[in-house]
Amino acid sequence: MKPKVTMIAWNQNDNYVVTAVNNHLLKVWNSCTGQLLHDLVGHADEVFVLETHPFDSRIMLSAGHDGNIFIWDITKGTKTKHYFNMIEGQGHGAVFDCKFSPDGQHFACTDSHGHLLIFGFGCSRPYEKIPDQMFFHTDYRPLIRDSNNYVLDEQTQQAPHLMPPPFLVDVDGNPHPTKYQRLVPGRENCADEHLIPQLGYVATSDGEVVEQVIGQQTVDQDEQGLEPSILDGMIRQLQLQQDQRTGADQESAPSGPQNMEGTPRRG
Asked: Which of 44, 30, 120 is nearest to 77 (CA)?
């Protein structure tokens, strides 16, 4: 195998450089002389995560597709902590990203199965207040492209970045209570009635019809008889534009039998 560097990171004081190689070794180098100081052995697959500790120049974190997370002392070339991301019934989960907290007391990782793993000191009770499953209701919505080849949300015909903040739902698409909806950026100060999603029935790829969040519904809109969702408003607007175009075509169309011959008709 031809060795290839997959990731590189400097330590906190820039005295060392750590490289991850596709033979699953981590190499620690003296950044001034280029001398190889240590080979760090432990990973069984390629490593794409190298994170230095925010203030301790000795500490480096590594994680890879083998599901292993290591905390290394790069000055000694030894591992101080190890965690293997085993998922019950599904084998191990590859670790895609890791970050230290600013105080260096915690670090968080994400894996290939959509899990957020939080490590550190202290009590885990505050995290138990958050639902186990949190998705945006727009996460798996289909996209289309318009005439300019720009991406649009298929349901609302809007550019994704112009859509309102999404709702938090569980894995089955059921919305979480309003106290969790305020965790979404842009909904922090919303009144309760603006945090009630509109539910609708949609067909899955298997042909099963399930109830899911399709838009936003407010009490004020229900009372005033306005459009209950952004989707309904967009449909109404498109219909209005189509009616206007149809009326304009009828006004500009030639009238009388003398103009019928030799005049090309619009398809």
From this structure: 30
Q: Are 10 and 108 in a shared domain?
A: yes
Helices (H), ranges, the chain: 178-181, 219-224, 230-252
pLDDT for 190 equals 79
Note the pLDDT tens digit of each residue in 165-192.
Answer: 888 888 788 888 888 888 888 887 777 7
Q: Domain count for the chain, please give it.
A: 2
- The b-or-e profile of 108-147 (16+ CB within 10 A means b, else e) is ebbbeeeeebebeeeeeeeeeeeeeebbebbeebeeeeee
pTM (predicted TM-score):
0.58
Asked if 3 and 23 count as a contact pair (C-beta separation under 8 A), the reply is yes
Closest Cα to residue 119, out of 96, 146, 138, 99?
99
> Which contiguous run of DSSP H or E holds residue 118?
strand 116-120
